[in-house]
Every structure is written in C-alpha cells, then in structure tokens.
Amino acid sequence: MSKFKRFIATACAATLSVLAIAQSARAYDIVQIDGQLVEMRPTWVVQGQPSVTPQAPVAVQPQIPAQYHSIPQVSLVRVSLAEKSATLYKAGVPIKTYQVGIGAPDTPTPRGSFQIDEMEKDPFYFTQSGQEIPPGPNNPLGSRWLRFTSRSEGDYGFHAGSVGTASSLGCIHLADGDLEDFYAQVEVGTQVDVF
After folding, report:
1. Which residues make beta-bridge pairs with 118?
2. Is the pLDDT of residue 173 over 80?
3. What is the longest distance spanned by two Cα atoms in the chain?
4. C-beta of residue 115 within 8 angstroms of C-beta of residue 77
5. Fold of the 76-194 domain
6. Using only C-alpha atoms, what is the Rg of the chain?
7. Residues of the chain with CATH 2.40.440.10
8. Cα angle 29-32-38, degrees, rounded to a multiple of 5
C-alpha cells in the first residue's frame, strides 16, 4: 500500500471516529502532505460512512456562513453642502461618495438630520401649479425619487439633476446613473445628515 493510500485510510478512520454525528452530516478536513495543504473534499456522509476524495493542493479560504453573505444596506448618508457631495456609510465606514447638486442660495437645501421616508421608481412629478408630469424623459425627477423631509414649503429629496452646482429648489441632485446606484443601496429609514 502506498504512503498516500495509507494516509487516506488513516484519515478516513480518524474522520469516521470524529464523525459520530447524525447521518447526512458533512465532514471538512484540510491536511498537510509533504508540506502541501491538501483539501480532503468531502461528500455527504451516508449511513455513517464518509466518502473523502483528495484534491490537488489548494490555498485554504475561510468559509463564510450563509447568513453573512447578504450585503447590509447603507446605514448613513452624509451630505456636505460645502463640498457638494453625498457619502454612503456602512457600519460607520465610508464606502462611496457621489458628486451632487444642492439648493440655490434663495432656495437652500435644509440642514439637519433626517431619514429617507419615501422611495419611488419612475415617479410622477407635480409642479407647483398642480400639473402632473408622468415618468419619462420630460420628468425633472428622473428615474428615482427619495424623499428625506417634507415641510410646509414642499418635499425635499434626492433625484436626477445637475451636479456640482447650487441651482436646485432645495433638493439634492445626482447624475442619472449615480441616482440608480444610490437608490439600490439605501432604504426607507436610512439616516440622512445634511451639513
């Protein structure tokens, strides 16, 4: 019997003694053979008999449990009026910054701490005179609307528009592609700090 086959037989016996677990459990084992890490790729344990197949040497990667695979949503959006930027944060860490447009001097963007309270894809726009503009290329909101505050003078939120300028009626403008990316990363309840 070759050295490798003896090793496999020993590994299987050791694995079998450790695997006094329920039938259908899985066994994972990484061993060292002649200074090389070899993954012993398991298959399902059937009636207490594990089937183990040696693989070529591999770099060992940590296994991340499935419950951690989903990407958490952004927890905070910080809008700097001075820098005309909006930065997304996950767990207190900045992950992305967008250039934005802000309110004109006579119609400034409100400062303070808010929460996104409304999100719409392909929104309708209502002018101050009550005219309704449907979704599409003539809609000044663009493809997305994210409201973060409603006041007596109107609603304020994120939507498509010119960036790098102070020319809006108080809303925060993002470029169309950036707006869709931004929309996908936040949710109703995400905190918005405007300073």
Report:
1. 147
2. yes
3. 90
4. no
5. L,D-transpeptidase catalytic domain-like (2.40.440)
6. 28
7. 76-194
8. 60
- Whole-prediction pTM: 0.63
**Secondary element (H or E) of residue 11:** helix 3-18
Six-digit token pair at 98? 């967008």
180 closest CA partner among 134, 145, 130, 154: 145
The count of residues in the chain is 195
Q: Which residue is it, tokens 């993002």?
A: 174
Strand pairing report for 144-151 and 118-121: antiparallel
Q: What is the pLDDT of residues 84-130, one digit of tens each?
A: 999 999 989 999 999 999 999 999 999 999 999 999 999 999 888 88
Q: What is the 3-state secondary structure (H, E, C) of 119-154?
A: EEECCCEECCCCCEECCCCCCCCCCEEEEEEEECCE
Q: Who's near 176: CB < 8 A, 6+ residues apart?
A: 142, 143, 160
What tokens appear for 82 in the block? 């001075």
